[in-house]
Each structure stands twice: as C-alpha cells, then as structure tokens.
Automatic annotation (TrEMBL):
Domain of life: Bacteria
UniProt name for this protein: Nucleoside-diphosphate-sugar epimerase
Organism: Flavobacterium johnsoniae (Cytophaga johnsonae)
InterPro entries: Epimerase_deHydtase (IPR001509), NAD(P)-bd_dom_sf (IPR036291)
TM helices/strands, residue ranges: none
Gene3D superfamilies to which the protein is assigned, alphabetical: NAD(P)-binding Rossmann-like Domain (3.40.50.720), UDP-galactose 4-epimerase, domain 1 (3.90.25.10)
One Pfam family named in its UniProt record: Epimerase
SUPFAM superfamilies: NAD(P)-binding Rossmann-fold domains (SSF51735)
Length: 301
C-alpha cells in the first residue's frame, strides 16, 4: 500500500480521486475543515487542516509520502474569484515552493499537478495543440486564473528540478456533484426549474472529459512507471460547440429548447480549444476515455 497525500482535498477532482484510491492505499488529506467532516467509512485515511494562508502546509510532512497530488486551486469559477495575490499564491507560488522543497530534499516519490487548456488563450485555429504548443501559446488570456496556470506550466517546462513531477493539462472536466455554476449542471438546473438560461452565443468549441476517466488515469500514473513529464489529457472525440452541448442537454431531458438572452463571456475569444493527446496515449496505451458526453450527461439525472 502506498502513502498518498492529496493537497486541496475539498476539490471536485480530489473527492473523486479519494474514492478511487482509498481502498488500497494509505490516504493523507490536506483541506478545509476535514477533521470536523471526516468520513468514517473511509479506512486508512488521515486528515490535516489546510486553508492557505490561515492554515499553511507543513512541507516537511510531504517527504513521508510516496505520491503527492496537488489539487488545490482558487479562482476556478469565474464568478468566485478571490484577490489576485491569493490566487497566485495557491495556484502558482505554493506548488513551486513544494517542488523546490522536494527537490532540495531529494524526494523520490511522485508529484502530480494540473494545468488547463485555457492556457492556450485567444485562438480561432481549429487544431489540437500538443503540450509544448499549449505552454508556449501567446494568445491573450481572459483572467488571472488562466495566467497562474500558464505560469506554472512554463515553470515546469524550464525543468529546474530533478523530482518525478507529472503535470497534466486538462480540458473541461465534468461529472455529477461538480460546482452548480458550471455549464452542464447550470443548464440542467434551469431546465428543471423552467427558467430561461443566460448563455453566450455558444460558438466556442470545447473538449470534455468525464471525471472518472481522469481519476482512472491518475490512478495509473500512481501505480505505473511512466516517464515524468507534461501530458495533455482529454477525450479527442468529445469536442463540441457550446450551443450544440446545450441542445444535447435539452434533447436528453426531453425538453423543447428555449430561446435565451445572450451574454458576453470572458472566453468568447477562445473560439477553439483542443488538446492533442498523442503523448499520453503512447505513454499509457491502455488508458482510453470510457464515458462519452451523452452518457456522461445522463449520469447527472
């Protein structure tokens, strides 16, 4: 059994990962109010309060683990952005501090972090970007969250470390129990409540990856000796225009689609975002997304 630390264990990705890896490993969770809300059904789990900057991270404790998964992030939701300094501290400075500390102390385990295809920025080319193209993109970005992710990915690319660091660049991750303000649950809830949704023109193309497929990949990285590198992780068959995704949700729910008031969103200049996944497919050929968009949406209902 491995000792696995999950830093930022209140996140959507972390909660799903915990269910996957807690059966066969010792799990150490760092997150908000965990001691008060711990799940007694999970065996071999230890809890540590972490809420930067009020409850800082004990870096020394990280040296005890075989794997560290950094899922902490702030500013993920565009309607809930904190002060810029806190955003950069959690999304950029703290992971760099962790990497530097682990490297200085000859850490031999695995460290896993996450980037975003929103790092591509403003783009209208209909192409799937490889890892280097994502990181070196000079497209204008819409906010500090995207900037913090782009800066962390660039730090990775400079390779000023010798630890086993895996940096996964993600598309739009979805699944039941994600934040209600995200697109799919938002549209589902407006349909259920017979409300008029407020959406953009919907001409943007996005990739979607179901949460269990991402968790399955992380589990394979934990348990497989693959080269430590930056990897795009996506389902190349689940690229879709936002307006077509909205229509699909109405169709699945058996409802007539309503006209809606169009609003301007920050990401409309990012007309096409897509990831080339050749590298991860070569590194872990047995991993392939299993849940595709139509079936994934049905799991919310």
């Amino acid at each position: 059994m491995k000792k696995i630390a999950i830093v930022g264990s209140n996140s959507f990705v972390a909660k799903n990962l915990i269910r996957k890896v807690s059966k066969d490993n010792y799990i150490y969770l760092y997150g908000k109010n965990l001691v008060e809300t711990k799940d007694e059904s999970l065996s071999f789990v230890s809890y540590f309060n972490f809420d930067y900057p009020n409850w800082p991270l004990d870096l020394t404790s990280l040296l005890n683990y075989d794997v560290i998964v950094y899922t902490a992030a702030v500013g993920v939701q565009s309607n809930n952005r904190p002060a810029n300094l806190l955003l950069y501290q959690v999304n950029l400075f703290l992971p760099i501090e962790i990497v530097t500390f682990l490297n200085d102390n000859n850490y031999k385990g695995k460290f896993i972090t996450f980037g975003s295809y929103f790092e591509i920025g403003t783009n209208d080319k209909e192409k799937l970007y490889n890892e280097i193209e994502v990181i070196q993109s000079v497209g204008a970005i819409s906010d500090s969250y995207c900037d913090s992710k782009r800066l962390l990915s660039n730090f990775y690319l400079n390779k000023q470390f010798n630890i086993l660091w895996y940096h996964l660049i993600l598309p739009s991750i979805y699944g039941p129990n994600e934040n209600d303000n995200r697109l799919i649950p938002y549209v589902i809830n407006t349909i259920k409540e017979d409300l008029d949704p407020k959406l953009s023109s919907g001409d943007q193309v996005r990739q979607y990856l179901y949460i269990s497929d991402l968790v399955e990949l992380i589990d394979k990285i934990i348990n497989t000796d693959i080269p430590a590198d930056v990897y795009n992780v996506a389902s190349c068959t689940d690229s879709i225009k936002i307006k077509d995704l909205v229509s699909l949700i109405y169709e699945i729910m058996g409802k007539q689609q309503k006209k809606y008031d169009q609003i301007v969103t920050r990401d409309q200049g990012m007309a096409f975002l897509g990831l080339n996944t050749d590298k991860i497919s070569y590194a872990i050929p047995e991993w392939k997304p299993k849940v595709f968009l139509k079936d994934g949406i049905k799991k919310y209902l």
